[in-house]
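Re: beginner question about structure tokens

> Can someone show what the tokenized structure looks like for a real chain? I only ever see the sequence side.

Sure, here's an example I had lying around. Input first:
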Amino acid sequence: MRVAELYGRGRPVFSFEFFPPANVRAAEELFETIRELARFLPDYVSVTCPLTVERRPLTFALIARIEQEVNVEAVAHVVATGYSREEMRGVLEALYIGGVESILALRGDPRPDDDPAAARAFPHASDLAAFARSFDFCVGGAAHPEMHPESPDWESELRYARAKVDAGCEFLLTQLFFDNADYFAYVERARAAGIEVPIIPGIMPVTHVAGIKRMAALNGNRIPEELLAELEEVADDADAVRRIGIRHATAQCEELLQCGVPGIHFYTLNRSTATRQILGELRVKLGV
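And the corresponding structure tokens:
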């Protein structure tokens, strides 16, 4: 089932995101993890796209295998950088033949060693989204509740988001955030800008203090002062950090679901135990 159809069923959609495998052995281990995860009934899973072009075929093959062999929808993250238009055609054709119905279209960060012609093929995520739609994929895009680091202002941020939707994106997945107020403010801005597609909040349970601080700094995410202080106080106690991260993420999800969000997209960092625990609590508490 196409992801846009999942969001049209009138109930919250739960999805898990994983990092790509580094080699064949890691791909097999991740496949087994996701096959085990299917018992917890996520609506779909996604695997991010490696920065290195040479590693991408392994990831795309894994996504097709999940689609074919596991009882869960699989979404491919497709990054435009590093591909010419014809090379991208080959990538999309292979995914389509493999049974993948939905992709997340991303520009990616240009790299110094990219072929200049390839870098010009899809200068924006919206260009890739329009190209992917011609293959009849269900296409999603990224959204940034705290604004993309390259955006100079909210007007520019929303103009790019609207361009993705106009190009064919049927849903938007947000970057991670730790304060629901940022998500609600973004949705309000997006609706005012004429963006009507589902905007799905992305949630990451904190499991490692130094790691989440690095990630937040890289992406421009704000960690609420109270949460950060609580985490830093127990930074050397992995179990305590995990408990705080799960508690905060669960509270975020409860509020979001009670306010009627289309679903929750969990950034698992390939550690699905915390995510499974959160999802289990939500199903017990809210009956979702």
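Each token stands for a local structural state, so reading them left to right follows the chain. Residues 238-258 form the longest helix (21 residues).
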